[in-house]
Amino acid sequence: MPGKVTVKKGQIGKKPYTVKGDTLQEIWDDLQEIWDDILKKGPKDKRSGKKVAGYTECPVKPPEKATYDGKVEQDKASGEFTVTIWFKAAELTMTGTIQHPNLASDKKLSAKAKAEWKRFMKLLMDHENEHVNVTEKAAKAFAADMQALTGVGKDVDKEEAKKKAGEDLQTKRQKLKSLQERLDKANKDLDSGGHGPALKTSIK
Questions:
Q1: Kind of pairing, strands 55-57 and 81-103?
Q2: Rounded to whole angstroms, what are the CA distances from 204 to 4, 27, 111?
């Protein structure tokens, strides 16, 4: 019966932006001097509108082309055709970009501050990579829902029954919760507890 609707995961690129400062507070706080960089240069979260240290975008394109399969049955008594159609093959494509800070130099940071920066960056990148994971999971759930769809059409004319089956399949696809809604919700839910880690700027 149903064929395969898949998600092709392409390259997930990284887009670093340079930050600098002699202390963690200088690096983090853009309310001071021109060299206080993270919040000034950091990306804006398009979901919340807030400035953040890291931000991940993973657009997923719905299938541009699809092939179909199906079966035709005829009621011998009435002569009516019943046509059932489904997606034989379709592919969603996913790419991604992770924006994150890159420290110009840590030479003037204390050993404790260097350790805190490394801790912060590890947790930040873990969080951003999780955005990739939840996006892929949501896309695969959408693909599975597409794969499970069948369209049915009935008519005494076989070609008309095929047409009705195709229309029914597309109508059912349109009634699925939209792909973008699913992606937005998955990423919003991930950020519900905060957009990644906080840098402990009190460490000197």
A1: antiparallel
A2: 55, 12, 9
Bridge-based pairing state of the strands 81-103 and 60-61: antiparallel
User: Per residue in 104-139, pLDDT tens?
Assistant: 999 999 999 999 999 999 999 999 999 999 999 999
Measure the CA–CA gap between 95 and 102, rounded to whole angstroms.
22
Mean pLDDT of the chain: 90
Pairing of strands 60-61, 55-57: unpaired
**Residue 204 in 3-state DSSP?**
coil
Q: Where are the domains of the chain?
A: 4-193
CA pair distance 185, 203, nearest whole angstrom: 35
pTM over 0.85: yes
CA 26 centroid distance within chain: 33
Top-confidence residue, 18 or 34: 18
Cα–Cα distance for residue pair 190/127, rounded to 1 Å? 9
Please say whether the beta carbons of 135 and 96 come within 8 A. yes
